[in-house]
Amino acid sequence: MPPVSASKRDALDMLSELKELTLLDEGDPQAFRVRAYETALHGLDAYAGDPSKLTLNELQKIAGIGKSTAGKLRELWDNGKVEKLEALRAKHPRSVLELMRIPGVGPKMVHRLRTDLGVTCVEDLQRAVNEQKLRHMKGFGQKTEEKLAHALARRAAMGDPTRTPISVALPLAKRIVAEIAALPGVTHAAYCGSLRRFSETVGDLDIVVAAPNAAPVMDYVVGMTMVESVIGRGETKTSVLTRKGIQIDVRVVSEEQLGAALCYFTGNKGHNIKMRQRAIDRGWLLNEYALAEPNGKVVAQRTEEEIYAALGLPWIHPVLREDQGEIDLAEKGQLPKLVDPRSILGDFHVHTSLSGDGRSNLPDVVAAAKARGLKVVAITEHAENLSLNGVQRDDLLGQRREILELQRALGDSMRILHGIELNIGPNGELDYDAHFRNAFDFCLASIHDRFDLDVAAQTNRVVVAMEDPSVKMIGHLQARMIGARPPIELDVGAVLAAAERTGTAIEVNGGLPRLDATLDVLRAGRGKNVKFVLTSDAHKADELDRIEYAALHAAKAWLPLDQIVNTLPPSELLAWASR
Ligand SMILES: [Zn+2]
Ligand SMILES: [Zn+2]
Questions:
Q1: Ligand 1 mean position to 393 CA, how many Å?
Q2: How many whole angstroms from 537 Cα to the centroid of ligand 2?
Q3: What is the mean predicted confidence (pLDDT) over 412-421?
Q4: Quick one: DSSP state of residue 375?
């Protein structure tokens, strides 16, 4: 994939914001304008060049972009501001948009809540529910009120809603880092903080930049189109707030200080305290500029490796810098080993456009898998019971023939498995029939609905699915969406025991919105006779790389390599899939 230009990125951001705000404004996902922005998004996303170089007429030649949208795109690139967008932003503040992220709350309901009850934020809604104001409103009733109360409780159980999910923070950070790295004079730019530690949510973005002259970097940061306000601007540090409410702190250091700054802004509090103590024990001081003697003479500062080495330690991977005992292990040479991304030769959860929510066709996905260096790839569409996105038998049989042909052309270079992602019903029932399921090379089974069943029912449906002989792996076990939907309630001990008993593996899903199973489950499974499988759950060819996120997530839980199926050589991968 060629890098996406900043102007295209800005335009995609604008279109998705317009879509969201228009949805709120018109109260109907099927409204003409909402759909127009949606098709324009897909069209622009697929356009390979730099669209900001196109004229108004040329823009309209891109599939999905009409005259009115083309006008807004030119307005964005020419003036940096779009009148219609500004008007919508003024009318629908961020707190109102927040309401739509509550399951069961749609644009129509938001409109009613605003006009009838003056609800403009989540707290208002909680109060209205507590005071039982909704049950008397026409079209709402007690059922709706109870559902909302439950949704709000589940939302609260997810933790701090002001933190940003990694699925939003990481692409944003990568984009800003790439743009800063391209500025003249800049020799290095990196995101640090909890994001570099691969935490599931982040409080703010910490970016460290090495450059001889800080001013151009600071100018750039305050001028980014996403910036809503500047919190503070100093000589070497600037903090801004984005329109989506994310605080970004950018610090510029000299090339010499880079290692010390990266260490300081990456480790969590406990990790950094222990590092400073090691420095003190040796008669030195450690801060964001250097590891130094009391008189100021530098001991180490240029790279992280030099600082760890001076303190008697090997370099510690950022995901491990959580003060969980990693410094003691590092000292003994017993740090948990991480999966080397290049050693991942198999992916067992991949969709194509045959699934309703897939975006790339089979040949493109297979080519991307080959280019990634995979030796085994399982194509696993959604099975028929999933509304809208599920695939019927005939289409799957057609796909099987297509796979056979692609396989012939590939020879021995890569093996394509024809798999399927089954849906786990409320009682553990699965799609199709046993005969049809067994004809696949590989079946995984996942929960895609009924997220609010109680712990006994959820545990039972997973265990029943595991007991089915066709099921080799459970996909995204806890069915959570980070920042949007909490994990389902499960008796983790019972699920792990069933995995040991049946030999069913548990997926480590690398999709950033999911990162599922959760760290808690991975830690609980550590040392048990349970296998875990890193997957991308790609819905587009360029999402196959997400398998590397699964590797980071597994590493964060210290999952041993011998419990990770993907580390096997290709012949054993195939044997595992068809066992
Ligand atoms: Zn799924
Ligand atoms: Zn999937």
A1: 18
A2: 5
A3: 97
A4: S
Predicted confidence at residue 3, as pLDDT, reads: 53
Helix intervals (H) in 313-429: 326-331, 362-372, 393-410
Q: Find out whether 105 and 99 touch, Cβ atoms under 8 Å.
A: yes
User: Using CA atoms, how far apart are residues 433 and 437, in angstroms rounded to an integer?
Assistant: 6
* 471 SS3 class: strand
Helices and strands (H and E) in the chain: how many: 24, 17
Rounded to an integer, the average pLDDT of 255-269 is 97
Could you tell me the distance, in angstroms and rounded to a whole number, from the CA of residue 109 to the centre of ligand 2?
30
Which ligand is closest in space to the CA of residue 423? 1
**DSSP string for 389-402:** T-B-HHHHHHHHHH
The tens digit of pLDDT for each residue in 351-369 reads 999 999 999 999 999 999 9
Measured in angstroms, how far is the CA atom of residue 138 from the centroid of ligand 2? 39
pLDDT of residue 4: 63
Alpha carbon of 475 to ligand 1 centroid (Å): 6
- Report CA(197)–ligand 2 centroid distance (Å): 26
- Among the bound ligands, the one closest to the CA of 536: 2
- Pairwise CA distance, residues 376 & 413, whole Å: 9
pLDDT in tens, 374-406: 999 999 999 999 988 999 999 999 999 999 999
Tokens of 322: 């959580």
* Average pLDDT of the residues of the chain: 94
| Peptide linkage before 517 cis (omega within 30 of 0) | yes
Nearest to 249 by CA among 180, 320, 323, 161: 180
Element (H, E) at 46: helix 32-46
Whether the CB-CB separation of 204 and 248 falls below 8 Å is answered with: yes
Can you give the three-state secondary structure of 54-123, one letter per residue?
A: CCHHHHCCCCCCCHHHHHHHHHHHHHCCCHHHHHHHHHCCHHHHHHCCCCCCCHHHHHHHHHHHCCCCHH
Query: Closest-lying ligand to the alpha carbon of 476?
Result: 1
Q: From the CA of 354, how far away is ligand 2's center (Å)?
A: 12
Domains in the chain: ranges and CATH: 6-92 (1.10.150.110), 95-157 (1.10.150.20), 164-253 (3.30.460.10), 259-331 (3.30.210.10), 341-577 (3.20.20.140)
Cβ pair 211, 202 in contact under 8 A: no
In angstroms, how far is CA 358 from the centroid of its own chain? 17
Q: Separation of 539 CA from ligand 1 center, angstroms? A: 10
CA of 477 relative to ligand 2 center, distance in Å: 12
| Residue percentage of the chain with pLDDT more than 90 | 81
Asked if residue 417 lies in contact with residue 404, where contact means CB atoms within 8 angstroms, the answer is: no
